[in-house]
Write a structure and sequence with these properties.
There is one protein chain. By secondary structure, the protein is mainly α. It folds into two domains: about 325 residues, no CATH class; about 120 residues, no CATH class. About 60% of the residues lie in helices and about 5% in strands. α7 packs antiparallel against α8. The C terminus is likely disordered.
Length: about 550
């Protein structure tokens, strides 16, 4: 027998079924996006686990904390200067570096594993948000999938443009989706990148804490996000700043004022670090012109196409719909307005990569506002037609609602290799270098190879990527001239700061004529050359 306060066996079973159903929905919601990792691994030999070119650099930043920094902060890993200051700190990158340097994890495998965990967390937090704005459980699971899979009419617009310009209908179907869809203008697609999955999981958790009136947790989440990503961090702090400011004016109590002042303090610390402190260093200021180009602007037309369907549902009259509490509506409107103004902040100030503030945050706040209306439509439809009829209507409409994401996934699966790959020879070379803790300035003939050297080894690439390499163009020209000269056997101005070269084996005869270089290691395709004049213990990681 059970007492009056203990749950009965049927209650326990029902609770377990609800939890199981929740997690099945969460897994099903993130699985289509995470399937791109399967496409990456089956596409060709040499898959690293990084499915986009920028992703390996986060591990490179993390490695620099332990190999070039002070254990907490790090220098720019793509600045080869030994005087590069250790001025950057992001706790998630610290975790990546600790896993690779201290625990010996493979960079790509670690990244994928953490990505799956973050994606599930993001899915869980999103489901809890949906449950919060929809206390009525009817059609809630379906609307959760709308939140995770829904998009705009970007692909429809591309098809229409193709028809008018007499091109095949599906040609370049992601033409209006920035970066071939990799800027993630809707919500669920963000779980593809480990970093974005984590940022969105934290942001969703902050929103959930606000809607459930747990301001302490919201502030903690805001501080965590601000301490690991400058763009989403500024976004969440500004949302909390406006929200707690509104609550202070509405409530006129000490508690709300305390929360607002705490947000002000967090914003002051954030801006003090990211603006005053970082910009006091010449090495950081030198990169700002690259980070403030027009390449990071997003046209208003693209934003409208991405938000149009869900935006119309958000502003549709709420007759017969469950109306969320006023505080919920106000908070979600604040999220909308702050996200929009940040995404288009070039209207007011010098732009600093405004496209980073899209990432589905604007879309998701509109979606949460729209969900009660969508639920009311489904409930009203069920009163008029049978359950089967509702299913038929949903099956007819849902493909259009998820078309942007479905087309994106199909496009990524279209047969071309996804992401970043390492040949067996390059992987073997990096493994040999890493096992011996070699460090120093490295130059290779392969751009992808030298970029990945900072991810897989303690090497400092002489030139890697334009957004992180100081004086990228002049370095590239100088390195190209010097390398061609020494391989051709005629003298050129030396680059004395270069300590190591990775070259194809067919350059061995030309390098043999260079008395200052010796082979350290070679495999069937590549050879590692070391400058003899620089052979000292200073080139070893302590």
């Amino acid at each position: 027998m059970t007492d009056g306060t203990s749950p009965t066996t049927p209650q326990v079973r029902a609770s377990r079924r609800r939890h199981l159903t929740r997690w099945l929905c969460i897994v099903a919601a993130v699985l289509p996006f995470l399937s791109l990792y399967a496409a990456h691994y089956v596409a060709q030999e040499g898959a690293t686990g990084f499915i986009q070119e920028d992703q390996p650099k986060y591990t490179a930043h993390g490695r620099a904390i332990f190999e070039r920094g002070n254990g907490l902060s790090y220098p720019n890993p793509y600045d080869p200067s030994p005087e590069a200051p250790a001025i950057y700190f992001h706790w998630f990158l610290w975790l990546l570096g600790f896993g690779v340097v201290k625990l010996g994890f493979d960079p790509g495998l670690q990244y994928v594993t953490l990505g799956v965990i973050a994606a599930l967390w993001c899915g869980w937090a999103t489901l809890r948000l949906v449950e919060t704005v929809l206390p009525d459980p009817r059609y809630r699971s379906l609307l959760f999938f709308v939140a995770m899979w829904g998009g705009g009419v970007l692909c429809v617009a591309a098809v229409v443009a193709n028809v008018f310009e007499h091109r095949p209908m599906t040609e370049n179907i992601l033409a209006f989706d920035p970066g071939d869809g990799l800027w993630f203008l809707s919500w669920g697609r963000n779980v593809i990148f480990t970093t974005e999955a984590l940022y969105h999981a934290i942001m969703a958790s902050v929103w959930l804490a606000v809607l459930r009136n747990r301001p302490g947790l919201a502030l903690l989440g805001g501080a965590l996000l601000a301490a690991t990503h400058p763009f989403s961090g500024l976004q969440v702090l500004l949302i909390l700043f406006v929200w707690f400011g509104y609550r202070t004016l509405a409530d006129r109590n000490r508690s709300s004022l305390t929360h607002w002042l705490t947000t002000v303090a967090l914003l002051a610390c954030f801006l003090g670090y990211n603006v005053l402190f970082l910009e006091s260093f010449a090495q950081h200021r030198a990169m700002l012109p690259i980070w403030t180009t027009a390449d990071y602007l997003i046209p208003v037309s693209f934003l409208l196409l991405a938000q149009l369907p869900i935006g119309l549902c958000a502003v549709w009259p709420r007759r017969h719909a469950h109306t969320p509490p006023n505080r919920t509506i106000v908070f979600l409107v604040i999220c909308c307005v702050v996200s929009l103004l940040l995404a288009k902040h070039e209207w007011f100030v010098r732009p600093h990569q405004p496209i980073h503030f899209t990432r589905g945050y604007f879309w998701m706040s509109l979606c949460l506002l729209a969900l009660p209306t969508l639920q009311a439509i489904l409930v009203a439809l069920r009163r008029r037609i049978s359950r089967v009829g509702v299913a038929i209507v949903v099956a007819a409409v849902m493909p259009f609602a998820v078309l942007d994401n479905a087309a994106f996934i199909a496009w990524q699966w279209r047969g071309e290799p996804l992401g970043v790959y390492l040949s067996p020879a390059s992987r073997d070379m990096f493994r040999w270098i890493n096992d011996r803790h070699l460090a120093g300035v490295l130059l290779t003939m392969n751009g992808g190879e030298i970029f990945l050297s900072a991810t897989y080894t303690a090497m400092r690439p002489y030139i890697a990527i334009i957004v992180n390499t100081p004086d990228f163009l002049s370095r590239g020209e100088r390195a190209s001239v010097w390398l061609k000269s020494i391989l051709a056997g005629y003298p050129s101005e030396d680059i004395p700061e270069i300590d190591y070269l990775i070259l194809p084996n067919n350059t061995a005869m030309a390098m043999a004529r260079q008395p200052d270089w010796m082979v350290l290691y070679k495999n069937d395709q590549l050879a590692l050359w070391k400058r003899i004049a620089r052979s000292s213990g200073a080139n070893l990681v302590k």
